[in-house]
Write a structure and sequence with these properties.
heterodimer, A: about 90 residues, alpha+beta, four-stranded mixed β-sheet, 4 strands, globular, B: about 270 residues, mainly alpha, disordered C terminus
Chain lengths: ~90, ~270
């Protein structure tokens, strides 16, 4: 699958990583719903690290869409809420 | 739904909203291409802005470091003249500058990292825009509007995602740069006001003034001794160990035995 880390580009990652990422995603979800910023940062960092480690960069001239899009590395919970909001952070 | 799934979904939905705008899907290609070129300009401008900001921080850092070196020299000079109080004052200021310098160093590294990321993003986008342009021409030449739809959808959504990402990165870098510019402006103002002990900005700061003053006091003392000697009151002039820099002196020194060194020669 192709994963984009915002601000860093796309990486091709073996599908076998999905289980691990889902686990981390669940932890991320828990952090966001309980408003636990101190848990959020490290989980996000770990997630991105795993993807960077396991992934190979997608060629720059590829026009493929990503299957998964991850927040940028220094994103706070507020930033992520912004990403999730309707009139969010992407300039129209 | 999980955070990542929602982020992915919403991001893509937003990035792709340009797709819905055109009646003829082939027009979408040209429209998207225009937007891509605009985005390329925007990201290049973003890189330039960050670089400008980084250079400004670098200049400030250099000037504060020079100031530190000067204070260090003043501390030595003061200590050499037996003025530990002045030396202490100079060293106190020197150490308070360190906080500012460390802060600027952090900013500098952060801007440098942003600049590298944006440069890389700009190169990625450039490659994708090139690829898109080729594909756009192929699609337009080969397919009817109806047939082209799927291919256009694929090409446009891939690059829209990239543009959304790059656009956001530029926006973030610009926000951050604006904040840093504001802080840099504040430091400039503080420097101008002297509150940051910007002694180098003034040709005669107070520590230097006092060191000069000490020199000129020595001169005056020596003049007095000389005059007393001429008038036969008191001791004759002697070789003076404490000759001082004449520049700040207010006496008219006609004595030839001026030594060029500053401060107390002991």
């Amino acid at each position: 699958m192709i994963i984009r880390i915002l601000g860093e580009g796309q990486l091709a990652v073996d599908d076998s990583l999905a289980g691990e990422l889902n686990e981390l995603d669940a932890q991320l979800e828990a952090a966001v719903s309980s408003g636990d910023e101190s848990a959020f940062g490290p989980v996000l960092a770990e997630m991105l690290e795993r993807v960077r480690d396991a992934g190979t960069p997608v060629p720059a001239d590829s026009l493929e869409s990503s299957d998964v899009i991850l927040p940028y590395s220094d994103a706070s919970m507020d930033d992520v809420r912004g990403l999730l909001s309707e009139d969010g952070l992407i300039p129209g | 739904m999980s955070v990542v799934k929602r982020v992915s979904m919403i991001f893509k939905a937003k990035a792709n909203k340009t797709l819905d705008r055109m009646e003829d899907p082939r027009e979408t290609l040209d429209y998207s291409y225009q937007r891509q070129l605009e985005m390329l300009t925007q990201v290049r401008r973003g890189v330039a802005d960050v670089a400008t900001s980084r250079k400004r921080v670098e200049l400030q850092m250099n000037s504060l470091q020079q100031q530190q070196a000067k204070l260090d020299g003043q501390a030595r000079q003061a200590l050499g003249s037996g003025r530990e109080d002045l030396a202490r004052e100079a060293l106190t200021r020197k150490s308070s500058l360190q906080t500012q310098i460390s802060d600027l160093q952090t900013q500098y590294q952060s801007l440098q990292a942003d600049e590298e990321k944006l440069t890389a993003a700009s190169q990625r986008l450039q490659s994708k825009v090139e690829a898109f342009r080729t594909q756009k021409e192929t699609i337009k030449a080969t397919y009817t509007a109806a047939e082209a739809q799927t291919r256009i959808g694929e090409a446009v959504s891939g690059i829209s995602e990239e543009m959304g990402d790059v656009g956001m990165a530029v926006q973030r870098a610009q926000d951050k740069t604006a904040q840093m510019q504001a802080r840099a402006g504040a430091i400039d103002e503080l420097m101008a006001s002297g509150a940051l002990d910007d002694v180098t900005a003034q040709p005669n700061d107070d520590i230097q003034r006092e060191l000069d003053q000490m020199g000129s006091n020595h001169n005056v003392d020596r003049e007095l001794e000389r005059l007393k000697g001429e008038l036969g009151q008191g001791e004759a002039p002697r070789e003076i160990g404490g000759s001082a820099s004449g520049a700040a002196g207010n006496g008219q020194q006609t004595e030839p035995a001026e030594q060029p060194q500053a401060g107390d020669g002991s």
